[in-house]
What we know:
Layout: H1 9-14, H2 17-30, H3 37-50, E1 54-58, H4 61-71, E2 79-83, H5 89-96, E3 100-104, H6 118-121, E4 126-129, H7 141-151, E5 154-158, E6 166-167, E7 170-171, E8 178-182, E9 196-200, H8 203-213, E10 217-219, E11 222-223, H9 234-264, E12 279-280, E13 286-289, H10 293-302, H11 330-338, E14 339-342, H12 350-368
Parallel strand pairs: 2-3, 2-4, 4-5, 5-8
Antiparallel strand pairs: 1-9, 6-7, 6-12, 8-9, 10-11, 13-14
Helix pairs in contact: 2-9, 3-9, 4-5, 4-8
Amino acid sequence: MIQIPFLDLEQLHDGIREPLEAAFRRVLKSGWFILGPEVEAFEAEFARYSGVQQCVGVGNGLDALRLILLAYDIGPGDEVVVPSNTFIATWLAVSECGATPVAAEPRPDTYNLDPDSLPAAITPRTRAIIPVHLYGQPADMDRINSIARQHGLVVIEDAAQAQGAQYKGKRAGSLGHAAATSFYPGKNLGALGDAGAILTNDGAIADKVRALRNYGSRTKYQHDVLGCNTRLDEMQAAFLRVKLNYLDDWNVRRARLARRYSRLLQDMGLELPCVPDWADPVWHLYVVRSPSREALRSHLANRGISTVIHYPIPPHRQACYAEFSSLKLPLAEKLASEVLSLPLSPILTEQAMDHVVEAVREFSGKERFT
């Protein structure tokens, strides 16, 4: 039986093995492994790529979000508006600062934060909004920023799935006051371990994050604030510098394959991704919807096709957020029961995609006559 993995990182890295190994040897030879020249170079290169003045490398995407919130002095007694439909890290960052996440529902077409849901979520205690560029597609940032300005709120992008995505010609990560991103290995720009970064044009915020990530220290053995240890290491920075050179090409391939999926999967009973005119997504995920999601997923698995659900349980239904379990967030809950991510990566072949499409077509035919 043909086997189609959801994501084959081994094959992806095989194509760039030589420069990755050269980066490894370079760092090994340097003897410098924490906050050195590789980190500095990557921060400058990724800031330039993202269209911002400042990039600060940290240990992971969750820490990036948390440190931005701390840099803006957001904490106990404050509220932060977050999407109801997102990976739990968006909520956890708020909770870890001692603030309270307040959920707002997504748009029914793009599944990103709906600006129309924001006014009801904003209270006198609200300090910030965190829009997530879910699945690699930018949220409607002009409208979100406009509402934030009316209420004097900070806008923090969660751009973990959107490296290279554009909103009206501007890169994700440059669309709010600051942005957090993750370089988890499966991201469009992924490290070979955990890694993350913050992006901003605000030098003061970048300076505070640099101190917070390094024990609250700007000068060795002088600790100005209560910080932590969450630093992007030299090895991961060197690997990210290599992979940044390939990111645009990989994103172009993802977009081409996503368009092909959308063309071939029409009229098969699935709700396909919607892309507004102002969005240029990078297709971190290709997500479809079906009321028969579990049956479809089982059928695809029987055909050797691996799929993933992003995400099966919304944050307010997680055990760690039991205090929010009574919230009525019907759209987030409906999405959690229907969404399914199909295989998509820069190395997915058209032949593999055809196998996926044929399996969906087979399932669609069975469903019609059930």
